[in-house]
Amino acid sequence: MTSMIDVVFLLISFFTLVMNFSQSEQHEEINLPRSELAQPPEEAEAERIAVQALEDETILLGALSCGIESGDYASTSFGRALSDELNWRQKIRKVTPSDVTIVVRGDAAAPTGFVQEIVAACQALGVQDFVLRARQARDE
Description:
The chain is of the alpha/beta class.
């Protein structure tokens, strides 16, 4: 019985180590645009925040649904949520906003200006690095 428990723990630790956690930041409603220039990332960003832009101009920041209303970006629901996330990372992980990479997964039908507003809102909070996700054109 003891050897069987050992094998079970070894299997659990093996599958935990090889599990792909990048699927957790993907939302099933997002239909990424296709691009000839899209390439898989060479290395994962150390500190990243996934932001998903839906077709109806709703932003998903983790499980939180928010938006960018007109006006000052810091006072919007997205600005407040992102500011809270950046403050948490700064207090707990000692990471400044300039060290964080925002991964924007925009729906193909989302307006281009909407994605630009998301980038501008992030820049207003001190974030400088962005990654825009797209599907490779040969992935049919």
